[in-house]
Model the fold of this input.
Amino acid sequence: MPFSKGSRIGPLLVAAIVIVLLNTWFAVASVRTLSQSEYWLSHTWQVIGQVEGIVASVRDADSSASGFVLTGDTNRLTSYYLARQQVTPQIQRFRELTSDNPRQRDNADRLEHIAAERLALLDQVIAAKKIGGTEAAASLLTEDASSARPRVRPIAESMQDEERRLLTIREEDVKRSTLVALLSVAVASGLDLLLIVFVGRILVREREMRMQTQTANRELEMAHAEVEKNVETIRQLNTELEERVRSRTMELESTNRELEAFSYSVSHDLRAPLRTIDGFSLALQEDYEEAVDETGRDYIRRVRSGVQRMGGLIDALLQLSRITRAELSRREVDVTALAESVAENLKEEHPEQQIHFDIDPGMHANADPDLLRVAFENLMGNAVKFSSKVSVSVIRVSYDPEKKRFEVADNGAGFDMQYSSKLFNAFNRLHGDKDFKGSGIGLATVARVIHRHHGTISAESSVGNGARFFFTLG
Amino acid sequence: MAEQQRSILLVEDDPDHEALTIRALRKSNIVNDVAIARDGEEAVNMLLGPNPIKPQVILLDLKLPKLDGLEVLRRIRESDTTRTLPVVILTSSDEERDVVRSYSLGVNSYIRKPVNFSDFAEATRQLGMYWLVLNECPPKP
Done:
């Protein structure tokens, strides 16, 4: 499972194993303490038995010796030696058993001493019996019984008392150890049980979580599939869109080609009859001037002026369509030089008009120089045209670096801002032909140049107060 | 023969323009013989046919029936006998592509006919003066 929850199981398992091991160790330790205590208990009983054995051997030796003295039976003598032989190893054994207890060591020394004295006396008694007979031996015994010599019995009892004292202590130990062992086993089992429950719960939770993650995973997979499907749909839509764009582009290209053919045809075919009309009307004027009166000559002039206007319109329309079709090639343009050259041409074209151009120095732009020239020609030409009725035309071309926009301003007739929305549409004119002649295409051409540069164009004016045109170049 | 040597070939499908062009030439005191071709095929026949003429200058319109002006120009420049003839395109069109194609085919001059007839007459006068009087033609083989 690639989920991080799995890693939580590891430390938990280790902790559980440690707890179980500790529990086991503790239980084993208490059981060992218990068995130790029990060992000591049985040891104590053994010591007590040993003392009992020593006492019994001494008593046996005593009674066998007495019996021999009284009866002279040599069988009794044999059992005496048998008993006597046992005493030293028995005491030795006792010493071994109680080597850990100094008090018992002292007791053993005393007991050995007393036993040795007693056995020495009995040896004397037996020897006296063999040599001097019953009387002498009995007198030795009687003498001894009346003497204040210490006896085996009391010391043995003191030894046993000592062991009994230990016995009580050890019995207590055993009891306690038993209790501790029981308790520890119980506690360990309890802890283990708790651990099992705990681990079990964690496992259950883990499983639930895994199931949840699995469910979540399945949901995620489903969502993923959904997304995939959507992506596929989007891809399909995209393909369709691309297809549509391609077909539209093709349509557009063919429309463009038609438009091109159209404008070519306009350029050629529309001018041809115009030139004919103009040519023959001029011939009429020149060759038959005398044949018609002043009214006739006026009519001929009007025909020719109509032809000129038509020619201007065709030129403006062609320029507009060419600007739409022309490839835009931007480069660094010296706008000041461009505006100055346009200004020179305009002054030459309008020798009768007093024009003062005020052109900012050092203006530059990244633009298509040909299209930008068309824009300036139209804007500055307009400025000249609409200021033709003031005594001195003042035309200012400037650049605002903060707003990054150019401005062409004049002191001419201006226009009503109410109609400003019509300014940049082809064939929309704000002035009648009797005031200012024009095609109504110039500003549309300028707007198209600016839009092809991804710039904006706007105007500010009021009637009689000149006009200001602003544009940016994107 | 001498007159033919100093002649003009005008390739023009519009009779009105033909009349006006000839009038403008005469008004400028250019009295040279003017041969007229009504379409491109006729022009090619006159220049490369069995009885070829050798005009001093060819005034060629672009938009012509049958063969257009550019095709006529191409044929003129392809043939050894006509390759060196001065050709002036005289057309209403000022489409850039026409100008470019004409020059790439080896035209000597490209004139856009102005709508204003006074301007057109002036252009015709200058044209005649230049090509018929000032310009030195290549020597005849």
